[in-house]
Amino acid sequence: MKKGTKPRGLNFTLQQQKLWGTLVFLAKILVLSLPLYFIILFSISLSPLQQLDAAVSAGILRSMGYDVEREGAYLTVGTEKAFSFYLTEDCTAWKSFLLLFALVFAMPAIALRSRIKGLAFGLPILWLGNQARIVGVVLTERATSVQFAMLTHDYAWRVFLVAFVLGVWFLWLKNPGLEFRIRWLEGVKRRLLTQKPGIRRVTRARRSPRLLTRKAKR
């Protein structure tokens, strides 16, 4: 092999380049999700966030006409057939926050300023969505039963949060991320054509056949 030449295995096709980009994207998400395992492993307390969510949820329910008593992260709704529940750390949607953070920073070729804007836009919306989830569980219990309310909490509302995170992420990609993604794909195509000059010549021949004919005659 001559010095300075690359092995043929390194000359990826466009499809292989896209597959490689997807693998790198997934690897970045795994690395950026490490704080999730760090918090779980060391049992880091999220009590301030629990207290905040409980206070806001109690205020929303009171504004809707419900009698609410709060003691820390414990809430009791109603006097007759009272519905008492405890807002755990998972009820604060901190995992959804970390998921959005990983998705935003795993995307390639996007400016840091756009990523920060995405988090500044997305995290408050996720927090409001989580408040809607808490209030929704209470309204479901008031209208049906505790068993059905907890069933929706364990299944339907969890799916809602995941879909909500992905929706916020896609909404962010639609504006600041799209332009940078197009530039990144164009850069991949440019590198691919540089690695394979034969494709480049064919492309030029299709675009300007008259020019090549004149050169050939000369």
Describe this structure in a few short sentences.
The chain is mainly α and 218 residues long. 73% of the residues lie in helices and 6% in strands. The two termini are 36 Å apart.
Describe this structure in words.
The chain has one domain (17-217). The protein is 73% helix and 6% strand. The chain has 8 helices and 3 strands, in the order αααβββααααα. The chain has a 3-stranded antiparallel β-sheet with strand order 1-2-3, with helices on one face. Helix 1 packs antiparallel against helix 4, helix 4 (94-106) packs antiparallel against helix 5 (112-143) and helix 4 packs parallel to helix 6 (146-195). The chain starts with 13 loop residues before the first helix and ends with a helix.
Key descriptive features of the protein:
single chain, 218 residues, mainly alpha, 3-stranded antiparallel beta sheet, 8 helices, elongated, disordered N terminus, disordered C terminus
In DSSP terms (H or I, runs of 4 or more residues), the helix count works out at: 8
Helix-strand pattern: HHHEEEHHHHH
**Coarse morphology:** elongated
Helix content: over 70%
| Span between termini | 36 Å
**Whole-number count of domains:** 1
Taking strands numbered 1, 2, ... along the chain, how are they ordered across the largest sheet? 1-2-3
Show unreliable segments: 1-9, 196-218
Strand content: 5-15%
Number of E-type strands:
3
Mean pLDDT: 79
- Spatial extent as radius of gyration: 27 Å
List the helices and strands and how they pair.
Elements (H helix, E strand, L loop, with lengths): L13 H19 L1 H8 L5 H17 L4 E4 L2 E4 L5 E4 L7 H13 L5 H32 L2 H50 L1 H11 L1 H9 L1
Antiparallel strand pairs: 1-2, 2-3
Helix pairs in contact: 1-4, 4-5, 4-6, 5-6
